C-alpha cells in the first residue's frame, strides 16, 4: 500500500547533515547547496515508484543544475531487511543510471527523521537560503511513467530560482514507505 507525504511547513530551515555518497565522498548540506537552491530526494533502489521516477528525476536534475539548483538523493531504508538498498547496491545503481547527482546513504536514519520524510521518492525543495519551498512529487507518474506529466518539482524549483513563488498547489509524494529499523 503506497504512502503519501504530509503537507509541509514551508519556510522551515533545512536540517544539517554529513553523509557518505556512492561516489566515495562525504557531503554536507553546505557542500550540496547550489547558488539558487537544493532539492533533496528521499529515494531507494527497490521501490517500484522510484524505478519509474528515475528517468524523470535525472532529466529534472540536469535541467535544475543549469539554473543553479543542485539535487541529492538520500537512501534511508533499513538495508539489513531490504538488502536491495544496501550501500554496495546503491553504488551499482548510481553507476547503472549515471546519476548526475550525489546518492547519499543515511544508515542511521537520522536525516530522514529530521526531515520528516515518509516515502520514496519524496522531494524537498529549498531556496538559496535553504528554506523549504516545495515538498512533494517529481510529477504525477506513479507505478507507470506518464510521459506528458507536468514537471511539478522542476516547475516549482524554476520559480524559486527566478525569485517567484512556487506553484500554488503542491501535490504530495506517493510511494513506498521508508523502511524504518525496529
UniProtKB/TrEMBL annotation:
<dbReference type="GO" id="GO:0016491">
    <property type="term" value="F:oxidoreductase activity"/>
</dbReference>
<dbReference type="InterPro" id="IPR047262">
    <property type="entry name" value="PRX-like1"/>
</dbReference>
<dbReference type="GO" id="GO:0016209">
    <property type="term" value="F:antioxidant activity"/>
</dbReference>
<dbReference type="InterPro" id="IPR000866">
    <property type="entry name" value="AhpC/TSA"/>
</dbReference>
<protein>
    <submittedName>
        <fullName>Alkyl hydroperoxide reductase/ Thiol specific antioxidant/ Mal allergen</fullName>
    </submittedName>
</protein>
<feature type="domain" description="Thioredoxin">
    <location>
        <begin position="8"/>
        <end position="165"/>
    </location>
</feature>
<dbReference type="InterPro" id="IPR036249">
    <property type="entry name" value="Thioredoxin-like_sf"/>
</dbReference>
<dbReference type="Pfam" id="PF00578">
    <property type="entry name" value="AhpC-TSA"/>
</dbReference>
<dbReference type="InterPro" id="IPR013766">
    <property type="entry name" value="Thioredoxin_domain"/>
</dbReference>
